[in-house]
Design a protein that fits this description.
The protein has 495 residues and is α+β, with helices and mostly antiparallel strands. The protein has three domains: 2-115; 125-285, Endonuclease Chain A (Endonuclease, Chain A); 288-493, Endonuclease, Chain A (2-Layer Sandwich). It contains 20 helices and 19 strands. It has helices at residues 7-15, 19-26, 30-38, 50-59, 64-78, 87-98, 111-121, 132-148, 165-168, 171-186, 201-217, 265-280, 294-303, 325-334, 339-357, 370-377, 385-391, 399-415, 457-473, 481-493, and strands at 2-4, 104-106, 127-131, 155-160, 190-195, 221-224, 235-240, 244-249, 258-262, 283-284, 287-290, 311-314, 364-369, 381-383, 396-398, 419-424, 431-435, 439-443, 450-454. A hairpin with a 3-residue loop joins strand 7 (235-240) and strand 8. The radius of gyration is 30 Å and the shape is elongated. The chain starts with a strand and ends with a helix. The relative contact order is 0.09.
Amino acid sequence: MQNYKSSLEFIMDRLDITGKEIAEALGLDESLVSKWKNNTRPLHLRSPHLPNLVAFLLCGDQKNYLRYHFLKKFLEEHNYGQDLSENHNLNAELSAFLTSNAPIFESIENQKIHNEQLNKTGQKASMYIFKGNQGRQVAISDFFNTLFNEALPQEVYIVTQEDISWMIGDERYLRKWIQYISATIEKGHKLTVIYWVDRPIDELGIIFNLYLPLYLKNEIKTFFIPKYTDLYFKCSLYLIKDKVGLWGMEGTNRNDRHTMLFWDTLSLNHYQNIYENFIRSSKNLMSSFTKEEYPAILKEIGTKNISTSNSIFVSKVPTFTTLPEELFYEVINISEIPKSKANLAKSIYQESSLLIQKNNDFLLRMIFCKKELSRLLKKSTFTYKDLSLMIDQEVTVPIEFFRRHLLTLISRFESSSTLKIGLTEKPLDIDLFIQDETFFLGWNFEESDKVLLFYEHNLNRSIYYHYDQIWKSIPSFEKDPYFFREKLEKLMNDE
């Protein structure tokens, strides 16, 4: 039998909190905390220090959410299952418990002997275990909320081999997940992600396409494990270096998950070594370049012996690289671009054209945003933002010129059996050119000067599949060239 002299002593033991920590947090002398703990000066409800003590126990340091869940669960059990979801109820119950001042007895057989043996070979550790998809979501939320409570930037590591139905099967939680990742980056934490790419392409495509805009605007270290064999078991590992860890595994079915949230030193060191082993067996997922290096990237792709295959080009509106040659040179002349910048524009245009021409015998589908195109056609001028940002000079033409551009694009569409064009209602966050299973090129020069390039075939297939689904969501009759001409002419004449 273990005898605790006070409720506070019990809580301090379970949460691994010292009297010194409490004293420093509340600005008190440690001797007063010792008297509370030993029940020589009992805490009472009228104590001016009680609200601050309760607040500290529920919200302490980086373990705050872990503490919160322990105290909530314990007090609910202590009160015969009472729901303490409301914070004011939880505060009141903790205050009442701390001031009860009755000794607490814990029935653990041979606890003292067991602890003495344990100290020779390891340490006593605390953790939380969560079950099922919903439990995984709660654990992940606790993990990120713990991270966001950190005042200084932390190193965060993520790898997931399991299926991610717990995330992508819940649209509301999927949005929350992206908010967590965005907030992690915005708060200055350093994020490393390892992808397990041997998974269904629809699953991989959903999550990676959500990440793409973040990769363009931020520095995220990305790797993939180049193994394409089924595993006996699959795991997930999330770490805030030297702070908190999360380990998860699938059970006998997808909903039978096991998730463990831990923060003891031995476990953290162990799982951080596991993550380092993952890194050693991984490869860089993608290359990141600046807009100034864009011509070199295009040349690299063009000179590689890449097997030609079906391609998809995605942009909010047609870019300058889709101009016919005569109109491109007309833009250069209209805008009075200096010779050095004009040469740079020509280089990019020529390399882009060569890339597209390699696909003459294969299907090339162009997807543009109907809403954005409609908005821009109502203006008096049009700015080729991609060209403007690449040469650091605004390139603006009368709207009539852009309409000519669209009409020549439609003419190519009508006369070609391999060029297809569609307008989507869906928002398009980035511009990209992708060849199925071959390479991916992505950029958004309005928000970043970075260009992403990667060749991993499963990831390429997943992104290609994602935009293929967007293409298929466009009604067939709207992809007919004659209907498309009629629709665009209507947009152009809509004032």
